[in-house]
Specification:
heterodimer; A: 575 residues; alpha+beta; Heat Shock Protein 90; six-stranded antiparallel beta sheet; 17 strands; B: Rossmann fold; 5 strands
Chain lengths: 575, 125
């Protein structure tokens, strides 16, 4: 099985075997498209062509059979009637020579009489004569003066002596019309012989042959073994002219072959006549044979072309669709990988932060206790002169330790958002705390932060760390959006319709958000920040707020600025 | 003026020594142990009302020590010390019967407060 597959792989075009690996980018999809089309063509078009070819040859052979059969019947029957004609004449002469004595036949008067009655029966007899064994024409009845002529040295006389009968080729006599000779020999009791010789007009032959109705391009005629025409033909010359193609080989049975010449392929049938030198030849014009075939062929070709076109179109379209889908899937997968990678990075960052924070807490605890101990000791010894100064120094250390502790707690808070601790929060204070982080940046960039806080805003019950994160994210984004010297306004108020629900609006006069992006700003990994942030900030913020039953609304005008409004219920419903 | 006795268990020696000295300055009788095994040994010798126990320790972990203390000396109250990162262990400890927990670095006043309450609970049973 494996071996077969290997062999099959060997047959496949380069690039199918190891497609997905070596080509990159759009080239890869073009290659895929090409290969798919190729496969479809191989698997669909080749069998189609094969079928068409088989059909073609089957129809062709069936058609040939249809043409060949009647043709060979025609030749055979014509051959038989010609043979019958010849043997009838031959029998007549044989009867004459047997029934009449030599004396009777050599008597000119008797012969004339015999010839007259013969001609009455068979008008194609031209003359009749008796030749003795020395070759001398003893008597002659016919239109020529042949009496006393000696045939001793002529070929036909030699042949009739040997075979007892002789049928000549057609020749033009003195009266310039084609005819041929039949001679019969009779042996006498004394051991001598004599020959009865008759000339026959070939007109009868022509009649026999011309009764066969043929299309104008076809032809039927008799030739001798040298290719000399014995009867007139339509396209191959007149009587006694030579045909311009070789005489076919000997066969008594009708044979159908094809003959090629400048007019194309002809169908040729022939048969040798028994006992004589004649070959009956029938030639059919190509158009006549092929007319039916050509219609069939063009129909077949049309079907084939249409099928191939349909296959090609379908395969191109289907492949295009398929490849586009694959490309889309690839792109999605790549994006997903990027997301996963990003998430993984964030997760490991979080773990690192947690580890660092935790490790720092231990030495921090030691510093805390040591400094505390120093403070205790100093406080107990009243006589120490720089006591106040020292205590203030240690207090400073302790405050620093506290700051460190807050930092590590925040780090851990970012890392582990599951440590949700709901407490009473005064939003105005929390916002100012968050702004504390960004004071330096605001100062350096000359950004003006305006407060429009409701003084008696009701406290809410939420997780401090998470809310800090939400506002830090949004305010940080506002800082990113504005130019140096820009304005940011932070306002808080209670919702008019729902008491207890508070709204925090962070408005900037920065570059604004494009309407297309506005739909996606809460999607994970969607970042338009200058420094290409994680793209997670708003997504996480929205997650936190939504989890507590709140909402974040955005209004933005390109070039005018954006306003993010965070709506928080009085109490976080989830945490 | 020893109102109650405290066993301080933490693997950081510097932390233990400074904190125990500070507590002693405040008139509390403090023993210290640097790991779980040592702590259990000390408990066998003496009676303590309160055990300050670090959750994250090498060897016998804080939670395991807590489990053994609560099964052997049910009256002894345990206050857990956790880092912020080990809140989960703190919560688990509370479930196992710890009196309370404190997050490192601790505020000494807060600690004294909790120890006092714990000692009271230990005595009244």
């Amino acid at each position: 099985m494996e071996g077969i597959w290997q062999k099959f792989k060997g047959l496949m075009p380069e690039g199918l075997k190891d497609f997905p690996h070596y080509a990159e980018g759009p080239e890869r999809y073009n290659l895929l498209r090409k290969n798919f089309v190729l496969i479809v063509c191989i698997t669909a078009i080749i069998p189609l062509l094969l079928m068409a070819a088989i059909n073609y040859y089957q129809y062709q052979s069936a058609l040939k059979e249809e043409i060949v059969k009647p043709l060979s019947r025609l030749i055979t029957s014509t051959k038989h009637s010609l043979e019958l004609f010849l043997s009838e004449r031959e029998s007549t002469l044989r009867l004459l020579i047997r029934e009449r004595t030599f004396e009777e036949l050599s008597n000119q008067g008797r012969l004339n009489f015999i010839f007259q009655s013969l001609k009455a029966e068979f008008p194609e007899f031209v003359d009749l004569g008796l030749i003795d064994s020395s070759g001398l024409q003893r008597s002659y009845s016919g239109p020529y003066e042949l009496k006393g002529k000696n045939y001793r040295d002529q070929d036909w006389f030699q042949e009739v002596q040997l075979r007892g009968v002789y049928v000549s080729d057609v020749f033009l006599g003195y009266r310039k019309f084609p005819h041929f000779v039949i001679a019969i020999k009779r042996d006498t009791v004394e051991g001598d012989f004599y020959v009865l010789r008759a000339t026959i007009d070939t007109e009868k032959f022509n009649q026999l042959i011309s009764t066969i109705t043929l299309r104008p391009g076809s032809d039927i005629f008799l030739v001798d073994k040298e290719g000399i025409l014995q009867t007139p033909s339509r396209h191959h010359g007149n009587v006694l002219e030579k045909i311009h193609f070789p005489v076919p080989p000997m066969s008594q049975e009708a044979v159908i072959t094809s003959k090629k010449d400048k007019h194309g392929e002809h169908l040729m049938g022939y048969a040798y006549l028994r006992g004589v030198n004649f070959v009956l030849v029938l030639i059919k014009e190509p158009g006549e044979i092929m007319a039916g075939w050509f219609t069939l062929k063009s129909e077949l070709l049309l079907v084939l072309v249409v099928s191939v076109a349909v296959i090609l179109i379908v395969s191109f379209r289907a492949t295009g669709l398929l490849v586009d889908r694959i490309r889309e899937a690839d792109q999605k997968r790549e994006a997903l990988y990027a997301e996963m990678e990003h998430t993984g990075k964030l997760a490991s960052l979080g773990r690192l932060a947690a580890g660092v924070a935790h490790e720092i807490n231990n030495p921090l605890a030691i510093i805390n206790e040591k400094a505390g101990l120093v403070k205790d000791l100093v406080e107990l010894s009243k006589e120490y002169q720089d006591r106040e100064k020292l205590i203030s120094q240690v207090d400073s250390i302790l405050r620093s330790v506290n700051r460190c502790r807050e930092i590590t707690h925040r780090l851990l808070g970012f890392a582990k958002r599951m440590d949700v601790k709901v407490e009473t929060i005064y939003l105005n204070e929390l916002l100012q705390e968050v702004l504390g982080f960004l004071e330096k940046e605001a100062f350096h960039r000359n950004i003006k932060v305006n407060y429009n806080l409701a003084p008696d805003l009701a406290p809410i019950a939420h997780d401090r760390g998470q809310l800090q994160q939400v506002f830090l994210n949004i305010i940080n984004n506002a800082f990113e959006a504005v130019e140096d010297g820009g304005n940011i306004t932070i306002s808080t108020k209670e919702n008019e319709t729902e008491p207890g629900v508070v709204e925090v609006a962070i408005a900037d006069d920065g570059r604004g958000i494009h309407p297309d992006d506005l739909k996606h700003i809460f999607d994970p990994f969607y970042s338009k920040g200058k420094e290409q942030g994680t793209g997670l900030g708003l997504s996480i913020s929205y997650g936190i707020v939504a989890k507590c039953g709140g909402d974040i609304r955005v209004e933005s005008k390109l070039g005018k600025g954006s306003t993010f409004t965070v709506v928080l219920p009085q109490k976080c419903t989830m945490a | 003026m020893a109102e109650y006795r405290v066993l301080l268990v933490d693997d950081e020696e510097e932390f233990v020594s400074a904190l125990s000295e500070r507590l002693m300055l405040r008139g509390i009788e403090v023993d210290s142990a640097l790991n779980g095994e040592e702590a259990l040994a000390s408990l066998k010798e003496k009676e303590f009302e309160v055990v300050i126990l670090d959750v994250m320790m090498p060897g016998l972990g804080g939670l395991e020590v807590l489990r053994q203390i609560k099964s052997t000396y049910p009256n002894t109250q345990v206050i857990l010390l956790t880092g912020h990162g080990s809140t989960r262990e703190g919560i688990e400890g509370m479930r196992l019967g710890a009196f309370d927990y404190l997050i490192k670095p601790v505020d000494i006043e807060e600690m004294l407060e909790k120890m006092k309450e714990a000692a009271k609970t230990a005595r009244t049973g």
